[in-house]
Amino acid sequence: MNRYFYYSILMCMLVNTIIYVPNILFAHRHNSALTGMLLSVVIGSCLAVIFSKAMMNKQGQGLPELLTQHLPLWIKGVVLIYLGFMWFAAGSIVLIVYSIILKRFIIEDINLEVLIILLMSVVVWSASKPTKTILYLLEIVMVINVPLVSIILFKALSSKYMNWYGIWNIASDNVMKLPNLDVVAAATYLFTGYINQAIFNREFDGRFCPKHLWAIPFLGLTILSTTFFIPIGFHGTEGVGHFVYPWVSTADSLRMEFGFVERVVYLFLLLYLSLTLIFVTVTWHVGYRLIESISQKQFPIRSWSLKPIVVFGSFMLITIFLAYFLNEKQHLILGTYWLRLRFWSELGLVLYVYYLSRKGKTT
Amino acid sequence: MRTASIILCFCLLVTSGCTTKAFKDIDRRFFVLALGVDKSKEDSNKYRVTLKLGIPSPKIEPGKAKSQIISQESESVSDAIRLLKSKVDKELDFGHTKMLVIGEALAKEDVTSAIDFFIRRRDIQNIAFMAVGSPDAEAVLKITPKSERLPANALFLSFDELGTESSFIITEYLFDFYRRMTEKGLDPYLPVVQADSETYIINRIGVFDKTRMKLMLSPKESAILNELARNIQKFHILTRTKDTDFSLSVEKFNRKFVFDPQDATKLHVKSEIEGTIEQSTQPIFDEDWKKYEQQTEQVAVKRYMDVLRKLQKNNVDPIGLGLIYRARHYNNDSKDWETWQKIYPNLSFDVKVDVKIEGTGVIK
Questions:
Q1: What is the DSSP letter of B183?
Q2: Contact A253 B126 (CB under 8 A)
Q3: Main-chain phi, psi angles of B165, to 5 degrees
């Protein structure tokens, strides 16, 4: 079962190109991006290790069970609703941004809200399934996607149009700058996949003990540097800041002479369609489980349980409203603020969970 | 179960969009294969946009490629495209636009707004080929070579490095051109396509500063720039001395740019050339090859020197020496750039070429 822990981490690492991480890094490319990235590799992997150690101490328990033992009901309710909506926001931002990309690059004339509703109905249907099903789904999607990711990386790294001087210029000139909070908040996002263990821990049958935790910083550093440096190699140290979706434009700059399609961008969009859907499914599922576990009651109306309808209904409504009322610039600002808030919340949550797990051990 | 089937039916209704305007069938689309932008001849503020539309035909045969050319003048490129839509009966589709041609007159003036349109538009590919059209883009698009099997395919094949491979043709993609327009210390270039009566002549390169074409290189200089900037592997060097006259066909080539660690205004260009003799006025096999190698080296040094000096005199940098300087110096980036701008006009080149003759071909 322990491999599922890594699928979740890998999924969050790969989805970073959609959730504005590259945009934030490129905005700081001439000063603190590099040092911020290195610092976030340290912070991100430390958090991952601490959290998974804490969860190893509490085999078979999710975050809600852990909180129930130590917090009064109303505080637990507030914390879980807050966390549930943080998870939901992650999925929601990715869903909206990917829908905009899909609309722009594939089907220009479709109505954005219709597209979002179509994607959301798929997501909600699969997110309301049991946790085990979601984990199996996650495995299938990751196994299909990792080869596609490697093809794109190989095409990019072997291209003659990749300019290594630009990359070296950005990398070497900025090693002495002080890290900036925005960059750290964005870059630590890559490591955040471990946090889904808050719910997945229930399904590991009491045998959650991931080996090779040392692989997380290496994997993270590799993906972080490809995210950051490959677009610089293709669009130049100045031009890279001009693109709204730098990675889509980078994929569009790759050419597969002998592939099924010449434009790599279609392979990229196809790959991110499945990644987006699985990412939103996982985040919304975890968000739903967190909010749902506040109370054990089912609140049935006839044979239907009210809980998923209310939770997923509010998720869908908020997403539609966000997509309808905000423009692309406001989405970027919202995403940046969310990443910052997430960084502090995650820091607090991981340390608190670690404290709880130690406390449980000594008494 | 019944609810699920109702939802499913609803989804089917939503997605069956062939009748709405969102999804158009392929027979209701015109595929734009090449796009040309010229300066208007009458009104200097206007652009003249020309599109080459592919007409699908049941037979694929050389010389049977059918296409339609439409043109429109307007104040902006996007406006002209809108007006062009009223000239055709089907929806224009830019998803297969692989050739972007800029007229020579426009290239000499200012290309920024045309390039901005290309790169900003979502459906024009970043991997579209770019070229300067001489005498203008429209003339280039109007030509249909006899060997062409698919509309505009001759142009695509010239540039995509899968068809002809010539040391005079330099391939430039849209994304690379945009990078060069924005990057400090790396200037854009474009191949120049000249319209002949029934075919194209592509053997010159136009070198740009950030906004306009500053100089057009001769065919010989173009090949040398192609070697220096793109490190192409297939070219030849002609050596002429008092007693010999031979040409070397190069099979292996590599060049390196290194700034002198002591003297910042000195650039070492080291290159290695390996090849076989392709043509000679006298037998070479039994002679001392060292002599011929040295003669070729002298010729090669002079070739590179001439082009490097010419680019320097015009203050353009398509090879990207400025970027190499920025990458190799570890001060503040903007400070490096300022220093480089002062250094480049006075930069001295030290070209070293190492030629190795591998053989003399089939005969001695």
A1: S
A2: yes
A3: -125, 105
Please state, in angstroms and rounded to a whole number, the distance separating the CA atoms of residues A277 and B15.
18
Confidence band, pLDDT 50/70/90 cuts, at residue B19: very low
Note the pLDDT tens digit of each residue in A164-182. Answer: 999 999 998 888 888 989 9
Could you give the percent of chain A with pLDDT greater than 70?
99
ipTM of this predicted structure: 0.90
Q: Is the pLDDT of residue B32 over 50?
A: yes
Chain-chain contact of B180 with A236 (C-beta, under 8 angstroms)? yes
> Across the A/B interface, how many CB contacts are shorter than 8 Å?
91
Q: Chain B 278-317, CB below 8 Å of chain A: which residues?
A: none
Q: B194: which 2 tokens?
A: 């000249």
Query: Which phi and psi angles does A299 have, rounded to 5°?
Result: 45, 60
Instruction: Name chain A contacts of B179, Cβ cutoff 8 Å.
Output: 163, 234-236, 239
Let me know how many helices (H) and strands (E) chain B has, helices first: 11, 13
In angstroms, rounded to a whole number, what is the distance separating the alpha carbons of residues B147 and B157? 12
Reported as half-sphere exposure (CB side, CA atoms, 13 A), residue A342 has a value of: 30
Q: How far is B331 from chain A (nearest CA, A)?
A: 7
For an interface test with A, which of B5, B96, B126 has the most A Cβ atoms less than 10 Å from its Cβ?
A: B126
State the distance between the two ends of chain A, measured CA to CA, in whole angstroms. 29
Interchain CB distance below 8 Å, A109 and B23: yes
Q: Can you tell me the distance from the alpha carbon of B309 to that of B67, in angstroms, rounded to the nearest whole number? A: 44
In this complex, is the C-beta atom of B233 within 8 Å of any C-beta atom belonging to chain A?
no
Domains of chain A: 3-362 (1.20.1730.10)
Full DSSP string of A190-220: GGGGGGGHHHHGGGGTT----S-TTHHHHHH
Cβ contacts (< 8 Å) between B11 and chain A: which residues?
118, 121
Give CA torsion, residues A151, A156, A157, A162, to 10 deg: 170
Comparing alpha-carbon positions, the chain A residue that sits nearest to B320 is A165
pLDDT in tens, A129-160: 999 999 999 999 999 999 999 989 999 999 99
- Are A18 and A272 contacting, i.e. CB atoms less than 8 angstroms apart? yes
> Could you give the C-alpha distances from B114 to A113, A261, B82, B142, B352, in angstroms and in order?
32, 27, 15, 20, 40
- By the 8 A CB rule, do B114 and B37 touch? yes
Cβ of A257 and B327 within 8 Å?
A: no
pLDDT at A42: 95
- What residues of chain B lie within 8 A of the CB of A103, using their CB? none
Is the distance from CB of A108 to CB of B123 less than 8 angstroms?
yes
Q: Is the dihedral of CA A355, A336, A142, A127 positive or negative?
A: positive
Average predicted confidence (pLDDT) for chain B? 88
pLDDT in tens, A188-221: 999 999 999 999 988 887 788 888 889 999 999 9
* Paired strand residues for B31: B54, B93
pLDDT digits (tens, 9 = 90+) for A16-29: 988 899 999 999 99
The ranges assigned to domains in chain B are: 24-216, 219-364
Q: How far is B168 from chain A (nearest CA, A)?
A: 18
Under CATH, which number does the domain B219-364 receive? 3.30.300.210
Going from the C-alpha of A338 to that of each of A49, A88, A98, the distances in angstroms are 23, 11, 17
Q: Which of A166, A254, A263 sits opposite B323 (nearest CB)?
A: A166
Tell me the DSSP string of B100-145. EEEEHHHHHH--HHHHHHHHHSSSS-TT-EEEEEES-HHHHHH---
Asked if the model's pLDDT at residue A352 lies above 80, the reply is yes
The Cβ of residue A151 has, within 10 Å, a number of other Cβ atoms equal to 17
CA distance A339 to A323: 18
Tell me how close the Cα of B46 comes to any Cα of chain A, in angstroms: 27
